[in-house]
Amino acid sequence: MASHVVGYPRMGPKRELKFALESFWDGKSTAEDLQKVAADLRSSIWKQMADAGIKYIPSNTFSYYDQMLDTTAMLGAVPDRYGFAGGEIGFDTYFSMARGNASVPAMEMTKWFDTNYHFIVPELGPNTKFAYSSHKAVTEYKEAKSLGVDTIPVLIGPVTYLLLSKPAKGVDKSFSLLSLLGSILPIYKEVIAELKAAGASWIQLDEPTLILDLEAHQLEAFTKAYTELESSLSGLDVLIETYFADVPAEAYKTITALNSISGFGFDLVRGTKTLDLIKTGFPSGKYLFAGVVDGRNIWANDLAASISTLEALETAVGKDKLVVSTSCSLMHTAVDLVNETKLDDEIKSWLAFASQKVVEVNALAKALAGSKDEAFFSSNAAAQASRKTSPRVNNAEVQKAAAALKGSEHRRATNVSARLDAQQKKLNLPVLPTTTIGSFPQTVELRRVRREYKANKISEEEYVKAIKEEISKVVKLQEELDIDVLVHGEPERNDMVEYFGEQLSGFAFTVNGWVQSYGSRCVKPPIIYGDVSRPKAMTVFWSSMAQSMTARPMKGMLTGPVTILNWSFVRNDQPRFETCYQIALAIKDEVEDLEAAGIQVIQIDEAALREGLPLRKSEQAFYQDWAVHSFRITNCGVKDTTQIHTHMCYSNFNDIIHSIIDMDADVITIENSRSDEKLLSVFREGVKYGAGIGPGVYDIHSPRIPSTEEIADRINKMLAVLETNILWVNPDCGLKTRKYGEVKPALTNMVAAAKLLRTQL
Ligand code: GLN
Ligand code: ZN
């Protein structure tokens, strides 16, 4: 019984690659320094997997930035603006594509399926010239070999590469990306030939797009591609790897019919239906790479349950053809539990990070082969049992309250236009009211105060004094700027999810549980391990303090349940929606406490609502239903006169506009500054939006200061589509990452633009 790992985190257990990259980019270290750190990381990963006993160890899953960009480099598909003259692509061109340089902006980045990882989107057109321009896959294979490890080189498959590309600027809309298949396959052939010559016996082609809702002609592209590659692949065993969901029946039929393929990898954690497909028919003589160890989460595998799944598969595909694997690359989970010094032993016994998952894969393979590590299995069973019954996980009261939510709509009794009238009587706001999204610049000084308070270096009294001063500064500034609805600036928060997670029961935090988000950027998601409850009020102290400083309305500022859920590692022992409902109830209590404390405007951020949208259409309605329901639960109990705002990041929400309306917030502010047209087109096409709406009037992700005219111009464009009395004027996201030198003039111009337009109405 063999074992396989789809891919491994690149950053290193303590983010070594991040620091090496950033130091190199800053000119503080040389290319050789960076290469050395990278080589050390690769060799320790290979050795670790070899020592653990993994048979199919991946290579070329390392990347200096991103695996899709690596593929673009391999194919030499460098957009013209980077002035690439041919030959082997070096750091200069590579990092210019990833991050831009002094004269050229970076290539676009987008989310890798439904993960929080972002890849660099290839830009292709009919004139793109392809040439074999990065030998990385072959170099890494040889590097591992020289260390005594025979690996399975991993490439992004040709069809997935094209399906995830976009047409370059100026390319005709009718251009089909798949028409480039014939142009890129010759390069794949060259790479494959070199890998073969270097001694590779297996090769892994990642084709995760197979799990999407593909059209017939897209599926045909797989047949075409792998038929054309057949002769170059002969003499080589080829694994087609899929992940993140089950493979639809049509796609399953298409790929299992391919002659040139020896093995198929499926995600059996998220793809529960794949199991039935396999049982009803799997091509004889082919290998099944069964992804039973979850690469997307941090939970220890339920080894006993996996063994029964694997045994059932053994019957279907044959003992010698079953390979135990991970559900996807382990790059989507944290690296090594060994470095967690602050988690207690009980919680640790429930967890497995990448390094531990490698051991699990191997233990499963060995157990199936008849040499079961009894001690390992029994301690795993004990941990599974303790997690099921632990009072830290189970809170009967919370479970009861969440169960009672089912079957109800949780909608505010009065409709939104009547509520807006009632609110306006109290708030008395001008037309085109101005506001901001929540955070103000987080200075070095502010970060130091929080850090020292956390480390018990300053007293609570000193901490409160410092934060109070900061809030007071932010309030005064907003009054000077003449903003209508104020915020307290969020100086007490380092992160909009962590801040709440730390105050809720059922959450745990790691010290090194980083996951790559893009390039050198990593995030450290909280772990939701138990039923969620709110021991005491979380924001009322600061919000009422801020409100006491001004006569203008001060927004209470909360993170919504769906965003907390989507930006955390979530329990796998109950459906996601149940966890979400529990968080919603905790936030509901907070909303009601804020209202009772006299806060009249409460913003509940759902920055990540769109992110949780399932990949497959068949699952989207269900998600939207419970996500939107969770949001409504948080505020269904407030008075008509209490104004509920929400905020969303990303401009890509045209497809969920009906869910947004169904959230029934009084006001929504949305990030849109890079795509006015796209957002406004929804309303132009007749979607009716009766609530308040503030499409961001300038981009806070850039240090650039927008002029009054420019902002006024954009507001005018919005006014052409939206009714005057529902439009709000605000930046497109929080100001946390900006400097005061940018924020002050930008907001000055924003308020001036709103005032200018009020005189013209
Ligand atoms: N209220 C948060 C802030 O202003 C919202 C951040 C976000 O949307 N990502 O920082
Ligand atoms: Zn935002």
UniProtKB/TrEMBL annotation:
Q: Transmembrane ranges?
A: none
GO biological process, alphabetically ordered: methylation
Q: Which residues bind 5-methyltetrahydropteroyltri-L-glutamate?
A: K18, N116, R521, C522, W567
- State a single Gene Ontology molecular function: 5-methyltetrahydropteroyltriglutamate-homocysteine S-methyltransferase activity
Which pathway or pathways does this protein act in?
Amino-acid biosynthesis; L-methionine biosynthesis via de novo pathway; L-methionine from L-homocysteine (MetE route): step 1/1
| Protein residues bound to Zn(2+) 1 | H647, C649, E671, C733
Q: Which residues are annotated as active site?
A: H701 (proton donor)
UniProt family annotation: Belongs to the vitamin-B12 independent methionine synthase family.
Protein name as annotated: 5-methyltetrahydropteroyltriglutamate--homocysteine S-methyltransferase
Q: What is the protein's species of origin?
A: Iris pallida
Lineage of the species this protein comes from:
Eukaryota, Viridiplantae, Streptophyta, Embryophyta, Tracheophyta
